[in-house]
Each structure stands twice: as structure tokens, then as C-alpha cells.
Amino acid sequence: MVGGGSDAFIGAVHRSAAVLDGRTEFTAGALSSTREKAIDSGRALGLPDGRNYGSWEEMLEGELSLPDEERIDFVSVVTPNFVHFPVAHAFVESGFNVVCDKPMVLDSGQARSLVNAVEEAGVVFAVTYNYSGYPMVKQARHMVREGHLGEVRKVIVEYSQGWLATSAEENGNKQAQWRTDPERSGVAGAVGDIGSHAENLAHTVTGLEMAEISADLNAFVPGRRLDDDANLLIRYEGGARGVLICSQISTGEENNLSIRVYGSEAGLEWRQENPTELLLKPAAAPAQVLRPGNDYLCVEAKNASRLPPGHPEAFIEAFANVYAGVAEEIRVRKGEREPGGAEKGFPTVYDGARGVHFIEKAVESARSERRWTDARWRNATNGNVASGNGEKPNRRVQGHSG
Amino acid sequence: MVGGGSDAFIGAVHRSAAVLDGRTEFTAGALSSTREKAIDSGRALGLPDGRNYGSWEEMLEGELSLPDEERIDFVSVVTPNFVHFPVAHAFVESGFNVVCDKPMVLDSGQARSLVNAVEEAGVVFAVTYNYSGYPMVKQARHMVREGHLGEVRKVIVEYSQGWLATSAEENGNKQAQWRTDPERSGVAGAVGDIGSHAENLAHTVTGLEMAEISADLNAFVPGRRLDDDANLLIRYEGGARGVLICSQISTGEENNLSIRVYGSEAGLEWRQENPTELLLKPAAAPAQVLRPGNDYLCVEAKNASRLPPGHPEAFIEAFANVYAGVAEEIRVRKGEREPGGAEKGFPTVYDGARGVHFIEKAVESARSERRWTDARWRNATNGNVASGNGEKPNRRVQGHSG
Amino acid sequence: MVGGGSDAFIGAVHRSAAVLDGRTEFTAGALSSTREKAIDSGRALGLPDGRNYGSWEEMLEGELSLPDEERIDFVSVVTPNFVHFPVAHAFVESGFNVVCDKPMVLDSGQARSLVNAVEEAGVVFAVTYNYSGYPMVKQARHMVREGHLGEVRKVIVEYSQGWLATSAEENGNKQAQWRTDPERSGVAGAVGDIGSHAENLAHTVTGLEMAEISADLNAFVPGRRLDDDANLLIRYEGGARGVLICSQISTGEENNLSIRVYGSEAGLEWRQENPTELLLKPAAAPAQVLRPGNDYLCVEAKNASRLPPGHPEAFIEAFANVYAGVAEEIRVRKGEREPGGAEKGFPTVYDGARGVHFIEKAVESARSERRWTDARWRNATNGNVASGNGEKPNRRVQGHSG
Amino acid sequence: MVGGGSDAFIGAVHRSAAVLDGRTEFTAGALSSTREKAIDSGRALGLPDGRNYGSWEEMLEGELSLPDEERIDFVSVVTPNFVHFPVAHAFVESGFNVVCDKPMVLDSGQARSLVNAVEEAGVVFAVTYNYSGYPMVKQARHMVREGHLGEVRKVIVEYSQGWLATSAEENGNKQAQWRTDPERSGVAGAVGDIGSHAENLAHTVTGLEMAEISADLNAFVPGRRLDDDANLLIRYEGGARGVLICSQISTGEENNLSIRVYGSEAGLEWRQENPTELLLKPAAAPAQVLRPGNDYLCVEAKNASRLPPGHPEAFIEAFANVYAGVAEEIRVRKGEREPGGAEKGFPTVYDGARGVHFIEKAVESARSERRWTDARWRNATNGNVASGNGEKPNRRVQGHSG
Hints:
The structure is a homotetramer.
Chain A: H1 9-19, H2 35-44, H3 56-64, E1 74-77, H4 81-93, E2 97-100, H5 108-121, E3 125-127, H6 135-145, E4 152-160, H7 174-179, H8 182-185, H9 190-206, E5 210-218, E6 229-236, E7 241-247, E8 256-263, E9 266-271, E10 278-282, E11 287-290, H10 299-303, H11 315-334, H12 349-367, E12 373-374, H13 393-398
Parallel strand pairs in A: 1-2, 2-3, 4-7
Antiparallel strand pairs in A: 4-8, 5-6, 5-12, 6-7, 8-9, 9-10, 10-11
Helix pairs in contact in A: 1-11, 4-5, 5-12, 6-9, 9-12
């Protein structure tokens, strides 16, 4: 693990998620940007001295110096955004598998470069769009893809929080500080931090690619340099329409991520704060409440549960499903396991690149006088629109994003 | 009553709402556009022959020929949209009080003319934006106006239905036929039919006036001539932002009208399909669930309930609250009752005009290349922005829209 | 109407419910137990002087003196409990149809006598177990009766309120005063007032007859003479088990009536405070949310709605459904309408008698040392167990209780 | 770990829960009752050969043969019920700390013996009444204990499942087989398996001790030898009343555990299937929705969350909180950590003994002709009623049950 020292809540989530299923051990790390804090954090978390590194560069060197079978199987990059690229790129180039937090990198140039590196190195690369790990998201995805909704016409995706409704960054909140700082977060605030989750959720569930967007970005808190609220109209390829709402000034909201998809034959609805319910709303029959652990679910959703129905699993378990997918894929690559069958999908470097593209386009649209901004994402490395080409072997095996 | 014969569900709602509290009797009508159906409907509903008119013109004449104290106290206009103006205008000019269905008229010209007529005649004029009659909407309005939310920053208002997801107008559904027909409905479909309710709800609760809008209107069902889905970004006067979503192709939704308002200190949420719950979400305290009939509510909300807590009241009762407000105001005008105190507000001709303006601007925006379309509503008759001027005696006494 | 003057909330509900559908007019009354208040109330409510009676005896005499076609079609008895019997009995004996509030009478002796009178007079007699009028209760009843749940095994019915958690009767609350007074309410408090509703709801939905009960009645508020809380275990004929919970000291509950029924193949759940949702929970498929106004409902549930889906109807509308059933049945009796088809059921004198029996048995059980108290209800007039005999023509035509 | 091999879902839960927070490693086990399966399971789960034991007796011997600092810190007993006692007793006697699944043992004799052993050995002993680990249960407990509800008058606790609505035990379901088998489960079925959870939840939240109970136990599925459904009336010491409902034949219910507590000043409500909401319902103010991770919670509830508000934690995390409490207490005992302050409580051997007592009394009551069965629990070892004596140092430090 790189980053994720004692202060950082997301580091602990990654560790819990990784070990939850007993497939992964936490064996090495460079847990902070300053040597002393890194070493202290590693000690507190029980890392052996030899692999408790003072910086990610030392870690890379140290792990490379170990015999193959002793090296880490993968590295998790959980630093602030601006550090993702150098770390991820360096580890990929050295042949390590990588799990990287989102947004993957700061701009499309970095994204292109990273996609190239991953394709050349042939490593497993996951981006922790963790919400895609929820069983009922997998079920939603399944139902849309299988046509249970008919032709998809409308997507409403929302991610509303309230924790930045006041100037938390000026009151010592470290999360708030780096997330509202363009140097460390990139060109966008709320759009980058949570809008990218919303975009990924919509894409994961529907497979739709954005064609054009119209974004209204706002910074409500005086002195804030990045957007803390954003509302977008979306036109998808193929004619579907969308609305994406994200906000960190929606007072009283905690972590209100939700998606609704309306097709010609049914609608569906899922809300992250009550993640064990998926509503299917047919045109002329009673709405159905689908819940995890039941036999009536698709195999991907069933595989994503550890417990019988009614024993709720939540955020950490969904996060763990991303790690479980990575662990499985690594085993396939190592030849320890047959591919095919019940693979657990996970978001890949292409999802990461799409997310970075979305953030850039949202900012571009917000600054434009024109109503619509072209937001088509073309695969960084070959100029094709990614959706539907399906030719990348890497993606067929790994990913959600087929 | 003009319109509202046997076929029309909304006519029956108006009648139930009007008589619910025992303050109004159904005494005269011209219930259909064809003489025979009008007479038949009136008979079936128990109108006395002498006041069961074959056309609205005959009704106007007939009622005018009666001595003052025998005439109807007010007329309800519940015809398809395109008939609202001539009927309402004629009755207003003859000095009758009017309750008119929404959207009030077809365009701003008609609206201006009607506002003028109402101001000159000094009659009571209500538009049945019935959702404003719900007790918890009145409470929401109270809390926003009293500053319980702090400064309002964001409004998300939505009205989603699914009943036009298929081509109902080609399958004999009469409601669908006139509502999708530009000749009878005006320039907009979903925006006019339900978007205008959403606009009114947002304005009623927050008092905010739209400055600019950016609208994406769509017609998903092949052959449909008016929008059946619309999504709007809104910039309000004073800096608040909004999203307005309306749709009649959101399969599986029944009548899903909801509003959320986020202020600097708290958020609130109300959903029409579960109208007895109003959520208040403070920044740093547990969310509160406010429910009708309780002593902790404001006087307007308390006055809008007939029953003790836990005995739900719903759509018809909210509708009846509009009628109760009109009946009360008429009594005040007649001198039968002191003004002041616990008046029940109701939407006025100004709300109606604002709604028509909104519909026009949404259509204009959807056709524009520019991102933002000016949507400021100026009082039809004096060129001032209506909000905040507060000088119209009519509005001070009557209305919600101060 | 007898009773229901200005003070009494339930009188207003009866009037609103009766007139809601335009089938009934409020034409005569003796609205209070004291002449002066009766006359004042009647005037305030617009009764013509000639039929604004000072006592129910005068009203009975006055109406009898009118020609048949001018008399009231039925009388609503909405007095405190102890007055139900004399009024209802006298009007029945004089051949009037009666709508009577619940609990119907004070004891089984009165119930027997009233059943006899109704059978002899052949009048229509309804008891306002109004919760049976909700569309989704009718749907629940339909699904149980049609076997959608398989064999019914367990019923959990609950009616919890909190308004008597303090000594409201000593603080000037008139409702509290008579409801906690054995002279006016009878042998039971909460059990009589709301437990009887719960019993009726369970019977209406399932058709099950109680065999044995075990009741724990409590009076939590010091000085209270009747129970304010009761919990019962039930063994039904045929082997099903039940739990009935009722309380008026459940602080924070408003009017929380709910029922759950578990069968061998599915369960169902309905809650009065959110009456537009009926949950069906099959053993091996997603739960379904059934809502009023939809085509997938049974005919009785469809007939019980006035509005399209998503336009909620609630307490008054359910109450109005009882009145609509009575109005329809009276028309059938008068020969104005063919029987059969879409009759709207309503609770009859037998439901009323069953309820009184239940109250007596609950009190008896609470005083007994034995675990189980026989609670089988036998038809007052012929000694047979009522359920299943189905021979009473009166009941076949009228009622819910077949 | 003893038990919990590949088949057993609860074994995996224990392991995930134990490692979730990085404080515990899975180092040794005897994972099945047959040597071969035990060894295979251990291997599959990555146990080192030297500590992958073929039986619990070997494990006890093996661990005792290790130097103190290499031994397991505690053993988790997750076998079918009838094996709990011998294993737990043997490990306790040898001085090992123990985490034991519920119900702790088969009868009061065993419970007494185990309590004695724990008191003599002075070890840490936890029973995995895991639902007490939910943050909002800790908050509920806090609010009741601090008097936010006033005097507690009524408790309604329910645990309804539907998975045994059919004869699953005859269709190869292993869980169903041992849970419906008196030889392996003890005297009770549903009451032992889930009723004991409900009893513990009610006691944990309220601290109330049962005085008398009246139980109706049923076996609905033909051929079943233990109860699959039970309903109890409860009279608590001090005058509160209760209802306990538990069932495994409530078709369509998954794992519906809920509790409601009504006091003289407020009520509260919590539902396990949506565990992040705790409703507080004051008498005269809006209901409040309390949610995990917020500053307004008590310290015990705050300590029980790992994530910010809106990032739901669920079953495994609650389970992990029990383990975290044990780990902490062990550290205190070892002197690695100061006692006091933010200790995480967990259910102790006394909670386990109370649960066994409850099961026995429920069965006794169900067989009795008398209405009420004395159900007072006296501390197995000293004859005192446990509640309120507060003298056991062990309990003061460790437990929930003070």
C-alpha cells in the first residue's frame, strides 16, 4: 500500500476490504508522504520493519529486490489524487499489478500514458470505483444488459453530500483541505471526488456512453477554489437522456448516491445508503424489491454476497468485492485458477480513463457559452470509441466495462 | 363547473374537493363541450335542470340572469387547456370568482390579458396548483421562509410519471390524446402538464424566482408531437441553483412529485406519494420527520389538516384545501368573515401567469443554441419582477405567492 | 346523524365521508346530547331548521312523520359508545337503515338484541370499521381468500397510539375523558377503542375466527380505570396463531395500525399510516409492492379508488368507501340498482357483534388464571359459529364477513 | 477456531469479523467434527500445518504445549450448539479466553458450570450475540439507560424469518437439519436459535429483567420436532410489559429482527435489516432519525463505526465489534492497554447464561396450563438476581450487561 497512513480513513477501508475474505495479506507499505509518519504508521499497523518503507520509491526498489515469489502481488495506491499517476505508472512499468483510488489521475494526458503502460506491461489494473462492488449494482447491471428494462431512455444519477456546506477546509479538516485544493485534487472538486463515482455507476449499470453534456458547476462556499456542487444534463449515444447531480453542499445529506434508470418496459432504482434494496418497476405490474443473497438473482450478484438474505452487507463488503475480483484475476494470470465462469468484475484502467475524461469535459462545459459540449470518450490508445469495440483482451477478462 | 363531465377524472376530483368540507355545493354546470354530453353528465350528477347548461356561454348568461344571491359564488374551469382562457376571461369580466385548472392559459399574451381582467374586476381567482394544498408543503414553505434552512442554495424538484411511456394516445386513451395534442394542450407536453406543477411547488416552497434556465426537452415515443420528458438546469435570482426533472415516460413511476431544498443550515425533502412525511435534515443533528396534525407545526400546516396525527389525508384533501381557501376568501370579500389570522393561502392568477411563462421559456430554451435562456418573470401588467414587490393588495390577501 | 356536533372530530369525518362521492346529502340530525348544543351545531352545519332536532327521540319521531320519500335514507350514529345501542335499536325497529360507529354496543346482550332487530326489520346495518374500506385492505383480503398466501399460519396485527401516555383525561381532553370512563366506554379502554379495529382488520383480511385468546391488559397511567395497553396471544380455528397488540401509551406512535399475515407460500404486510403500499412477500421471489389504482388489482380494490395510481387516497376516502357501500346497498334494496357485480362490501351488524364479543373475552381472559380463554364467536341469534355458515342472505349481499 | 469449516456460513463470518480491524490473525483451528474435513478446511483456509488440528482436543493440547506468547489469544467456538459446552468448558479451564456462539450451552446446568469455570479461571468470555454490536443498538441502549425515554413501559421485540416455512431439513439443507434436531440444538428450535437473540437484544437495550412469561410455541411444518414459531407475553420486573415474537415460518421474511421500546416520554425503533437508522419518537416533537458516524451519538456508538456517515456498515462490522471488544479486553488484561474510557462492550458469559435460562423457561411455559411462568434469572453462582447487583468485577469491566 502506498499512502493510507493513520489519518486517512480510506486507507483503513482498503485494508479491511482487502483482508475481509482471507485472500490477501497486508505485507508492505509506504504509508505517508513524510518518512517519519510513514514508518510510524506502518509500525502501528504491524508491518514488518523490512517492508515498512519510508517512501514509495524505496518500496518499489525494495520489492523489486525480493525474489518473485516473495514480492507483493499488487500495490494499492491510496494517496491524494496528484500522487496517483507517478506511483501507479512506476509500479505498472515495473510489472506490478495495481489497485488505484479514483479519480485515477489528474488529466487525460496522464490517463493515456497510464493506459499505454498497462497495455504494454500486461498487468492487472483496478480503479476503486467501489460502488460497483455492491451486489445490487451488479444485479441492476445484469437486468439492464439483459434487456429487462427494454430500451434505456433516461438515467438519473445523483451523489449528494453535505460535509462541505461550511468552510471545513479552514477549520482543520485535512480531507477538506486537499479535496478543495486544485494542486492536490486537480481541475475539479465535487465533480472529481464524487461526480466521477456517479458517472462510473451510470456507465457500469447501463453501459451507455455520453455523447454531449451541459454542466453547471458552482462553488457556494466563499473562498472555495473548486466546485462544491454540479448539475449536468447528458445526452447519451443512441438517444438516451440523463441528469447527473453531485454536491458536497447539500446540507443534511450524508453519502446519498443513487441511480434510477428508465427503459421502455421498466424502471429501476438503487440507493447506496440502503444498499440491500433494488427496486424494479415494471410498466404494468407491481414494483419488485430485490435483495441480496437470494436465489432469484443473477450469478454475479449472488457471488458478491457472503451472507444469507437479510444479513446486510454494506460499504466495506462492496469494496472487498473489488479486491476479490483483483485477487481472482491475479490468480488466473498466475495460472492458479481457470478463467471463465464466475469471475468477479472490477473497474479497470479504461474506467479510470473514462472518469478522468468526464471530469475534464464537465469543467470544459461549465466554462463554455455553448449549450452542449462533446463528451465522447475515445480509448486513449487507439482513437476508437471504447464502448462496444470489445477487442481488448485485457478488458474482456478483467472488467466491468465491456 | 365548466367541463368535468363523466369521462374526466379531474372533474370528479374538483367536485369532491369542493364539497369535502361542507362549505360548497355543486349547483350549476356546463359539463362538456357537446350539448348532449353536457346535459347527460349534469343529470347523472344531480344538477337541477334549470342550471344544467348545454354550453359555458349559456351558463354565463343563465347565471347572470339570476338575482345576485342565487348566482353561483364561483365557477370551476376544468376543461382541456385551450378552453381555459375564453371561459375564465368571460366569467371574470362578468364579475364571477374563478377557480381554474392549470396550466392557466396557453401563452403569455392570454395570461397578461387575464391578469388585467382579474385586477380590473377585483374577483377572486385561483389556479389549482393543488399540491400546494398539502399540509407538509405549507410547513416546508414556512420553514424555508422563516429561515430554518439558512440561505437556500439548491432546489431539486421532480415530477416523474410513466403513463405515456407507450403510445397511449393511439390506443384510445382520451387523456393521452388531448394532452399530447398541441392544438389542445399548447406548446408543451410534459412540461406544461406536470413541469408547471413542479415549478409551482418549487416557487411555493422557496419563493425563489428563476433567472435563467437551460432546458432539454425530448419526445421519446415515436410520432409524439410534444415533449414527454424534460430536464432543466436553473439559476435562480440571488444565486441558488436548481434542477427540474419532469417526465411522462419514466416507466414504473406513478405520480412521483418530490422536492428537496438545501440551505446553508439544513435540507428538506417531501414526496407527494407519501405526503404525510416532511424530512428536515439539519447539518449536525438527526433528521426530523414532521407529520401532519401535530402541535409542533406552523399554523398554516395545522389549519390544512382535518384529522388527528396518524390519520392520513391525501390528494383530495390537499385539493380541498385550495377550495377551502377560495371559499374563505369569498366570504371575506362578502364581508361574512374578518380577514387576517388563519387564512388558507391558495395559488392565484399570478402563479398561473408565472407557470405559463415558465412553459414558454422552457420551450424557448430547448430550441436555443445558447446555454442559458433568460426566464425572469415580470408581472404581466406592470413590467416589474413580481417577487418581492408585495404591493398588490389582491396578492397580499389571497395568495401563496408573496 | 345522531351525535357528531362541533366538538367531535369523528362526526366531521362521517359527514365528509358520506358526501365525498356526491351520493349522499346531510339532511337531518340531532347532533348533541344537550338540546342547545344540538341545535347550535346543526345550524352551524347548515341543517334546515325543520330537521335540526334537539334529541334523537325527536328526530326519530320527526322523520317518521314525513312521507316515505322525504325521510332520511339512513341514520349515522356517532355518539359516545353507551348511546349506540338505544339509538341504533330504536331506528332499526322503526325500519331505518343505520350506520353505527364502533364498538357497536356495550355488551353481548345488547349485540344479540340488535342483531335480532336487524334480522327482523331487514334493514341495512353497517358498523364503521372504516379501515376495511382501504383499497389495499380489500386487495389483501382478496389475496388471502384466493389462496395467494397458501395456508395462513400466522397473523400479527397491531394498533399502537401514544396519545394517552399521559393523563390527558385530567387535562381537559374530552375524547380522553369519555374513552377512559367505564360508564361511557364500557368494560374496556384501548381494547374497545382500537383493539376492536385490529380484531376486525385481522378477520376482514383473513376470515379466521378466534378459538382461544390469552390477554394481558394493563393500565399504565396512574388513576386510569380502563386498560390503556393490551397484548394478546391468539389461537385461531384451524390452527393458525396470532398476536394482537394494541396500546394508547406507545409514546410517539400516532395511529400505527398494521397487519402482517404469513401463509405457507407468501406473507403480506400493510400499514395504515402509509396506506397506499401493500407488500406481498413470496417465499422465493422478490417482494412486490402493490399500490392502488392499478389494473393488476382485484375488482374490489379497483372499485375502492377514485384516482389514478400515485394520487394517494387516505383515511377519509376509506371511510367514504364504507358509506358508498351502504348507499349502493340501499339502492339495491330500493330496486334502483341490480345486485351483484361490483358491490362494495362493508362491515355489518355481525362484524359489530363479533367485535363486542372480542372485547368481552379479552377482559375475561385478562382476569383469568387460566392461560387460554375460549373466544369462539357464535352468531348471537342461532348459536352457530358464524364463520363459514354463509347462510344469512343479509350477509351474503351486504357484507365483508362471508 | 473450533468448528466453522467450509460448509458453515457462520464460521466465515467469525473469521471475517475477527480480522476486519487488523487486530486479530487466524492462526490455529480444528474446523470440523471429522478429522479429514477439519484438516482439509484448515488447509483451504491457509492454516499452517502445525496448527491445523484434527480435533478440538488435539488443538487444546497442541496450544497448551506452545510457549505462552505463541499460543492463541482466544478460541472461537462456532460448532453446532451441543458441542459448545465441552469445548468452551475445556478451554476455559485451561485458561484460554473464549468467544462462543449462541445459545451458549444446552441447559442451565451447563450454564452454571461454565459461569463457575469462567469466574474461577478469570478469563475473558464472550458470547456472540452479535446484534448488540451494531452502533445504533449501542445508541439505543445509551438513550434508554440515560433516561431519554423516561420510564420504560413496553418492549416489542421480534425476530422473524421464513427459511423454515417448508421442510428444508428433509431436502438436504444441513443448517436446517441440525437446527431442527433436538439432539444437536437442545430443547428449542426457533426460540433457541433466534428467540435468544431477541431476548438478548431487548435486555441489552433496556436492561430489563423478565419476571414472568407466557409462551405459545408451535411447530407448523409437519414432522418437525422443535418449535418453528413462538409468541410470548412478558412481564418485566418493575412493571414494564413486553411481547416477543420469533418465527422461522414467516414466509417472505429474511432476517427481520426489530425492537421497539416505549417509555413515558419517548419511543424508539430499530430494524436489523436497515441497521443504520434508529428512530427516536418523542411525545410532542418530530421523530428523529439517528444514523451512525455522526457527532451527535454517544461515545459507544461512535466507537462502533469505522466509516463516515452515509457509508453503511452492517452485519459483519457489527460482528467485528464484538471481536474488537474482546481483543481490547484481552489487551487490558495483558496490561498492554489502560482500562476505562472507550471500552467496547460485548456480551459475556452472564448474557449467555441468561439466554439459556430464557430458552428453558419459554419451553416450560409453553407446556404449562398456568398463564404465567416465573422467568426471573438468578445469577447461576450466587442466587442473586443479576440485574442491578453490579458487584461482579468481571461484568463491570467487560460487559454489556450492567
